[in-house]
Amino acid sequence: SIHFNDPKYPQQWHLNNRRSPGRDINVTGVWERNVTGRGVTVVVVDDGVEHTIQDIAPNYSPEGSYDLNSNDPDPMPHPDVESGNHHGTRCAGEIAAAPNNSFCAVGVAYGSRIAGIRVLDGPLTDSMEAVAFNKHYQINDIYSCSWGPDDDGKTVDGPHQLGKAALQHGVMAGRQGFGSIFVVASGNGGQHNDNCNYDGYANSIYTVTIGAVDEEGRMPFYAEECASMLAVTFSGGDKMLRSIVTTDWDLQKGTGCTEGHTGTSAAAPLAAGMIALMLQVRPCLTWRDVQHIIVFTATQYEDRHADWLTNEVGFSHSHQHGFGLLNAWRLVNAAKVWTSVPYLASYFSPVLKENKAIPRSPRSLEVLWNVSRADLETSGLKTLEHVAVTVSISHPRRGSLELKLFCPSGMMSLIGAPRSMDSDPSGFNDWSFSTVRCWGERAKGTYRLVIRDVGDEPPQLGILQHWQLTLYGSMWSPADIRERQRLLESAMSGKYLHDGFTLPCPPGLKIPEEEGYTITPNTLKTLVLVGCFTVFWTIYYMLEVYMSHRTVASTQGCRNGPCHWPQRSRKSREEGTELESVPLCNSKDLSGAEAESGGPPTTSDLLGPDLLCEGDWTLSQNNQAALDGPYQHRPPDLLQGQEEQIC
Amino acid sequence: LAGAAGPDAHGTVGLSWAVHLDSPGGDQEEEHLEQQAEAVARAAGLVNAGRIGELQGHYLFVHPTGPSQALEVQVIRQQAEAVLAGHKAVRWHSEQRLLKRAKR
C-alpha cells in the first residue's frame, strides 16, 4: 500500500523487488506500520555528506555532524580530482533519503535523522579516528562506516589503541549509556583472496560486521569471507546484475542520483538503516541487544556455495553470509518484544606459551585449552557470543598459514584463511582473530586451535610462539536462548507491532559530552579580520580628527586681542544643555564689547551667515530652536556687523 | 566499486603523539589531568593540543613547528620519545602515523 513519487523508487529493488519477489530487505510492511526510523540519528562517517541535496536536506542533522578534515561543523564534501567524494552522500541516501519529494530515491529509514562526519578526505590518524567514533555520541545513535584497511589481500590492520578505546568508550557511554552502534562493511578484497578476519574493524566485538550479496543472493566477486561476519544484505553484483539506486551528490559529475552504488559500502548503510527502524520501536536496545537480534533473525537461504553450518543452539552461520540475510520485518518485530540480555561476561585464558613448529599440510599443529566450570564461576559466563584468539606466530610467508578454531561443541571457525597475496615475512604479532559462529553455545569445555602451513614453497618452519583465548558471552543458559527463539518466532506475525503494545524502557543516562568550546579556524580567521579592520579604522578616524583639529587650531589664530570662543549662553549653562561644540568656522569678534555685554547670543549669532552654509556644521537641538528664532528670516546682509564669520 | 581513495598516504601530519595519562582520581580530576598534560607536553618540547575526543586522560601533543630537516625530525622524535617513555605520569604513548583507509 506504500507509494512514493520518487522517480527512482521503482528501481530500488533492494527495498521492494517486483522482479524477483523476496529478494529485498522486506521493509514495506514495517513502513506501513509507521516505523520509519523516527527519533533516531544515523551518522555516516566518511568523506562528507552533501546535506543540501533535496533528498538529504529534510532529514539532515547538523547537531550530529562535524568535519574533522577541515575542523569545522559542516561536513560538506569537497570536489576532488577523481570526483570520488560522493561516497558519504550515497551512503546517507541509502539510509535516510526523503520520500515523496519527486526527487531520486527513498531511504530505508526515511524518517530518521542523518548526520555526517567528514574524516576520510585527508590525512587520517588514530586520534582523528578516535574523535570520529565518539563525535556527538549522545546525539548519534548509529555510526555507519563503509571503509577500512586496504582490501589488497595482504594487509593486517584495524583500529589501534586509540581507535579501540574509542569503540569501547562508545559502547559503554554512547547513546545515553545504551551504547553506540558501530556498523562496518566487511571488505571488497574478494578478488585478492582477502578475508575480513584480517581487518580489525570487522573482527572487533564492538562492531556489527555486514557483508554483501547480489540480487540473486550470492556472494559477489568483490566480497570477502570471515568468521566474524554477523550478516549480509544486498548490494551490487557483477555487470549483469543491478546495483543499488540511491541519492548522489550533484557536484562535479554528480547528478543527485545514481544507480551504480555497489560494494560492501552499499550494504553497511542498509543495515544501519534497518537498525534505525529497530531503535524507533525500542530505543533502549543496547549495542549487544542489537547484535543478538541480528543473530536470532537473520535468515539462512539456499546457496550451494555457502558453507552453512548449524551450531549447538540451532544458529546457522556461513563464512560468506554470516547468520544470513537481514530482514527488516523480522528485525523490527523482534526488537518490539526484546528484553535486554544480561550484562557482558568475559573470560581470558592465560597467555599460553607454545614455541611449537607449524608443520606442512596435510599435517597440522593442534593446541588445546580447557575452560572449566570453575574458570567461569567468577564471570558467570555460561553461553558464548564472540570468541577471540590472539596469536603471535613467526613465518616467512604469512599468507601460507591457515588457522581454525573448534569450540567445545565441535563448531569449526576458519579464523585465519590462507591468502595467496600475503607474502609478508613478519607473521602475526598479538593479532586477534574472532568468530561469532559459536554464538549461544555453552562456554565450558575444550577449545582446539589447529594451524597448518599450506604454502607450496620449500619447507620453511612457522613457529607458534604463544596464544590466548578470550570468551565473551553472558549468563544466559542454552534454555534461555531457546526460549527467546520461541518468543521471537511468535512475534513474527506482527501482532505486537502496533502502538498499543510497548514494553517498559529504562531511561538512559545523562552523559555530558566533552564539547570544550573550540573556536574553529574559520571563526578565528573571521575574528582576526574583523579585529584588524576595527583597529585600522580606529587609527584612521583618530588621525582624521587630529588633523581636522590641527587645521582648525592653525587657522584659529586671532589677530587683534585674545581669542574668543563664542560665549556660551548662560541659559544653556543653567539648563545643563551646554554643548561641547567647537565651531567649525572661525569667528572674528568685531565688536568685542558687544559680545561681552550683549545678551546671550542665540545660536544664530554664533551661527553667523557663513555658518548657515550647509554641509559642514551640525545642528544640535538648541541650535535648531535658535534658528527658528528672530534671525531666521533676516537676509544674510543684515546680519553683518554682528560678527563676521570666516569659514 | 566505490573508489578506494583513502587519504593520500603521502599527506602530511606534523610530529604528534597520543598520550594516555594516569588518572589521579578524586574531584577536579579533569583539571588535574589538564595541568598534567600541559606539564608533560612542555617537558617533551611539545604543545598540548587538547583531549582526544571523549577519551578521558588521552591527549594529543604536537610539535609546534613542522620541522623541515629529516635530521631535525629525528632529534625531536628521540627527545620526545625519551621524555614520554620515562615520565611517571604517562601510562601509554604512541606517535601518530597516517592511517591508510579505503572506501568500500
What keywords describe this structure?
heterodimer, A: alpha/beta, 7-stranded parallel beta sheet, 5-stranded antiparallel beta sheet, 19% strand, globular, B: 104 residues, alpha+beta, 4-stranded antiparallel beta sheet, 2 helices, 5 strands, 23% strand, disordered N terminus
Description:
The complex is a heterodimer of chains A (647) and B (104). Chain A has 647 residues and is of the alpha/beta class. Chain A is 24% helix and 19% strand. Chain A has helices at residues 28-32, 87-96, 126-133, 161-173, 200-203, 264-281, 287-297, 328-337, 373-377, 478-491, 521-555, 570-575, 592-597, 603-606, 621-627, and strands spanning 41-46, 66-67, 113-118, 142-145, 147-148, 181-185, 207-213, 231-234, 244-247, 257-261, 309-310, 316-317, 345-348, 352-358, 365-371, 383-394, 401-406, 412-416, 428-435, 445-453, 462-474, 586-588, 644-646. In chain A, a hairpin with a 5-residue loop joins strand 11 and strand 12 (316-317). With 104 residues, chain B is α+β, with helices and mostly antiparallel strands. Chain B contains two helices and five strands; from the N terminus they run βαββαββ. Chain B has helices spanning 29-43, 70-86, and strands at residues 16-21, 47-51, 58-62, 90-95, 102-103. A four-stranded antiparallel β-sheet of chain B has the order 2-3-1-4, with helices on one face. The radius of gyration of chain B is 16 Å and the shape is globular. Strand 5 of chain A pairs antiparallel with strand 5 (102-103) of chain B.
Tell me what portion of residues of chain A adopts beta-strand conformation: 15-25%
Can you give the mean pLDDT of chain B?
A: 85
Class inferred from helices and paired strands of chain B: alpha+beta
Number of helices of chain B: 2
Taken from the alpha-carbon principal axes, the silhouette of chain B is globular
List the quaternary state of the chains: heterodimer
Biggest sheet strand order of chain B reads 2-3-1-4
The average pLDDT value of chain A, as a whole number, equals 87
What's the helical proportion of residues of chain A?
Answer: 10-25%
* Largest interface, C-beta closer than 8 angstroms, per-chain residues: A-B, 53 and 33 residues
| Strand count of chain A | 23
Largest sheet of chain B: 4 strands, antiparallel
Structural class designation of chain A = alpha/beta
Distance between the termini of chain A: 87 Å
- Given as residue ranges, the uncertain stretches of chain A (5+ residues, pLDDT < 50) are 568-647
End-to-end gap of chain B:
7 Å
Order of helices and strands of chain B: EHEEHEE
Question: What is the radius of gyration of chain A?
Answer: 38 Å
